[in-house]
Amino acid sequence: MTPAREILLHTVPVDVFDTERIRSDFPALHQAVHGQPLVYLDNAATTQKPLKVIEVLDSYYRNDNANVHRGVHALSERATAAYEAAREKVRKFLNAQSPQELVFVRGTTEAINLVAQSWGRANLRPNDEVVITETEHHSNIVPWQMLCGQTGAKLRVVPAEDNGELSVERYAQILGERTRLVAVSHCSNALGTINPVKQMISLAHETGAVVLVDGAQAVPHLAVDVRDLDCDFYAFSGHKLYGPTGIGVLYAKMALLQDMPPYQGGGEMVKHVSFDHAIYHDPPLRFEAGTPNIAGAIGLGAAIDYVDAVGIEAIGRHEQDLLARATAAMAGMPGLRIIGTAPEKTGILSFVLQNIHAHDVGTILDMQGVAVRVGHHCAIPVMQRYQVPATARASFALYNTREEVDVLVAAVYRAKEVFG
User: Fold this and answer.
1) Which domains does the chain carry?
2) How many CB atoms lie within 10 A of CB 181?
3) Is the pLDDT of residue 6 over 90?
C-alpha cells in the first residue's frame, strides 16, 4: 500500500454529496485524455458547464436571437425579458438591493477596469493612495498601476503572512487619511486563502475609503451577501461559476454608479445624442455600451439557477472535504511543499515538488488524465513572495470526487518517480 493510500484511508466520513448525479449533468467530464479518464482539477481557471447552461444557450440562438432593449418585435421582447431576468437572478444571488446596481461586463477584469477608469479617474488626485494586497491576481494590480500613473496617486501593498493570510493589523497600519480606495480579493486564486474582507471593508470605511472586492474565486464556493459585507464594488466572472465565458458582473452601490461617468461610449448607453452633447442612460445601461453578451447573461442566469438548486453551502462542504483529503495526502509527501497553508481556504491546493519544474509536473499529470493549472497563475508577486517560479494548482469543484483526489495523489507520486 502506498503512503498516499494509507493517509487517504483515514480522512473524513463517507461522502453524502451526490456527485454521480451532478457529474451526469456535465458532458465534458465524460471523456478520455491520453487514454485515461479525465480528472478535471483546473476549476479555478474555468469550470465545466452543465447541460442546463448549454441548453439555454442553444435555445436562445435557435429561438430568441435578437438584440435587447431596442426592438418591439417578439424575438427582441423575449430576448430582453430573458436578459433582464438574468440580472434579477444575479441580484438575488448577491443579495443586492436593486438589479440596477448590477452591470453586465465581460468578466472580473473588465469590471475592475471599469471602476478604475470611471470612478478612479473622476475621484483620485495626486498623492491619494490605492491599497491592494500582495496576493492579488494581475487583474487587481495592473488597472490600479495604470490609474496611479494617470492620476498621480500612489499604490500601497499589504504584505502576506507566511501561510498566505492577510494580517488585519498590518492592513490597518497601511490605511490612512490619503487612502481613497482598497481593492482586495475575497479569495486568493493562487493560494486559496479566504481573506477577512468584511473586517477590511469596515476598517477602510472608517478612513472614508471605498472598497472593491474581487469575488472571482469566491462566488463558486461561498455564499456572498454584498449588503452584509457593505462593499462598495463587487466583481465576478461567469465562467468560474459554471456559466459561459465572456460574461461577468460588477455590483456597485447605486449612489456610486449614479455619480460615475460612462466607461465606454456607443449605442444603448444613451437617451439622446446630438453633435453638441449626449444624455446618458441611468445605471446600469450607462455602462453597457453596444450590444451586450446577451446569450452569456442568460447562460449565467441558468448557471446561478443550477448552483442554487444544489446549494452553495453544500457545495462548500463538499469542496472542503476534497481539499482536506488532498491536503492530508500531500502534506506527508517527501519533497513536496504546499504553497498557501491558511486555515481558511477555498478548494485550492498549490504545490511545488523539489527539483521538478511545475510545468514538468503538469505534463506528467496530463498524461495520466489529470488536468491541473501550472505557472504563476497571473499572480507573479505571489510567486516572488514564496520564491518559486511557478506552482502546480489543483482546484476543486462541485463535480469532483474523492476518487479523483486519489488519482491526483497517485499521479503526483508518478511524477516524482519519473524525475527520480
Assistant:
1) 3-30+311-418 (3.90.1150.10), 53-309 (3.40.640.10)
2) 25
3) no
Q: For the segment 299-354, what is each residue's pLDDT rounded down to a tens digit?
A: 999 999 999 999 999 999 999 999 999 999 999 899 999 999 999 999 999 999 99
Instruction: Identify the burial level of 178 via C-beta atoms within 10 angstroms of its C-beta, where 0-12 means exposed, 13-18 middle and 19 or more buried.
Output: middle
Question: Who contacts 133 (Cβ-Cβ below 8 Å, separation ≥6)?
Answer: 157, 158, 159, 160, 166, 171, 184, 185, 195
Instruction: Please name every residue paired with 178 in a beta bridge, in sequence order, or none if there are none.
Output: none
Instruction: Give residue 18's pLDDT.
Output: 93
Q: Is the pTM of this model over 0.90?
A: yes
413 pLDDT band (50/70/90 cuts)? very high
Cβ(131)–Cβ(179) below 8 Å: yes
Q: Of the residues 148, 187, 231, 378, which is catalytic?
A: 378
Separation in Å, CA 366 to CA 36, 59, 115, 330: 9, 34, 38, 18
Cα–Cα nearest to 342, from 163, 134, 133? 163
- pLDDT-derived band at 71 (thresholds 50, 70, 90) equals confident
378 among known catalytic residues = yes
**Does 371 have pLDDT greater than 60?**
yes
β-pairing, 179-185 vs 129-133, is parallel
Angstrom distance (rounded) from CA 68 to CA 77:
7
Task: Locate the DSSP E strands across 9-150.
Answer: 32-33, 36-37, 39-40, 102-105, 129-133
Nearest CA among 407, 409, 401 for reference residue 349? 409
Decide the pairing of beta strands 370-371 and 278-280.
Answer: unpaired
